[in-house]
Amino acid sequence: MQITPPYLMFLGDVPDQLAAKTAQGIVDWRPEWCVGQIRLPGCKADLRLPDMSIADAAAQGVKTLIVGVANAGGVLPDHWTDVIVAALNAGMDVASGLHTRLGSKPAIAETAARTGRSLFDVRHTDQSFATGKGHKRPGLRLLTVGTDCSVGKKYTALALEKDMRARGLDADFRATGQTGVFISGRGVAIDAVVADFISGAVEWISPDAAPTHWDLIEGQGSLYHPSFAGVSLGLLHGAQPDAVVICHEPTRTTMRGVKTPLPSIAEVIDLTLRCGRLTNPAIRAVGISVNTQALDEAAARTLLADLSTAHGLPATDPIRFGVASIVDRLLLEFPLPATVGA
């Protein structure tokens, strides 16, 4: 897919900021591509970009409208169609990370055909995948896992890539969700892959590599989430990680979208390592990543120190405090030749 910036971010009428996490992720990691946002009445999300009409965005040279939302089931509501049709008529392409294909809406499909504009369904791929084999692959792999969905697995993997590359290490972010694909320009939305082929798809996006190369694989869902555990397990087996970082949001008591109690970090570490040993008996935890946005700095530092002591692992907020401590631990656990990263 060749999705052309600059972008106008469409947020619809989502009920909270987290529902706009696809758009927020693109803004956070590719701000130079994002010109403005368009919202419907009742929208509770704000990217702190200029609010624009379709006409305003076209005058600013926007090339693509991004449907930047994530909702249960990946549904494209009918009442969003008019905005998408207007964007197509204004000469923009449209890209979406939802499960519902843009072209499944007759008005959108007909307008795209008439105007010659492109529709990009990032969550869907024409690539065929084999079933996972679990054979040991050369190279090193780290997977971010979570106590819940939407706790910072993507941001942690991207922050690790940035820090490791700054140190001269050979590291690549591997996207497994629609937002990550938008940010990196490559990857597979794993939750749209047929269940039998999830682990094979992850093997495909993280193939054989040099012995000192790190693939930093974006996690999805949680092994404890009743809605998404199947995806999380297939991803864990296909990633075959040497290392995992546990991601956590400390203010939640139940998992997002359900009434299931939030598991403890210790429970997630234990289950992840037990399940992960199927494809990598040497799997180990190397850090804890905590989204402390809801805490003041003093409370955040206290929490991170307590978690580090309790679990014997570096604990940090990758956005607030960086991931240097986790990279340090990674290099201690997996020492590289002296010439690498020098």
TrEMBL record:
Name listed for the protein in its UniProt record: EBNA-1 nuclear protein
User: Coiled coil: which residue ranges?
Assistant: none
- Per the UniProt record, the source organism is Elstera cyanobacteriorum
| Signal peptide (from-to) | none
Q: Where is the D-glutamate N-acetyltransferase-like C-terminal domain?
A: 129-327
Report domain D-glutamate N-acetyltransferase-like N-terminal positions.
Answer: 41-124
Q: What is an example of a Pfam family matching this protein?
A: DUF1611
